[in-house]
Amino acid sequence: MEALVVQLTRQLTATFFDDVFKSILGAGQSIARVVTAPINRIANACDVAGVLERRRLAARMRRRARQMQRPHGRGLFGSLSELT
After folding, report:
1. What's the CA gap between 11 and 24, in Å, rounded?
2. What would the DSSP string read from start to end of 47-82?
3. Are 72 and 78 in contact (CB under 8 A)?
4. Radius of gyration of the chain (CA)
5. To 10 degrees, the CA torsion angle through 68, 69, 72, 74?
């Protein structure tokens, strides 16, 4: 019983630290987006040939292709959705 409590405690602390780490990363990304917004606006205004938009479109297509390659089953019972 004691081993189960120790295992559960370790799992909870690992989950807590993962959540804290992800929230710090998310806050950092938000701050970076706010700081670089004026630079992005200037870059978009100067993009007369449409190079930036083509790069964004290509990145979006690569991302979508990667998502299509991933298995759709997620979690413990994710593969059961194929049976219904």
Report:
1. 20
2. --S-HHHHHHHHHHHHHHHHHHHS-S--STTGGGGG
3. yes
4. 21
5. -120
44-53 residue pLDDT tens = 999 888 999 9
Cα-Cα end-to-end distance for the chain: 39
pTM: 0.50
pLDDT of residue 82 exceeding 70, the answer is: no
- The residue assigned the tokens 């759709």 is 72
Model confidence at 5, pLDDT cuts 50, 70, 90, reads confident
Which residue do the tokens 């040939």 mark?
A: 49
Mean pLDDT of the residues in the chain: 84
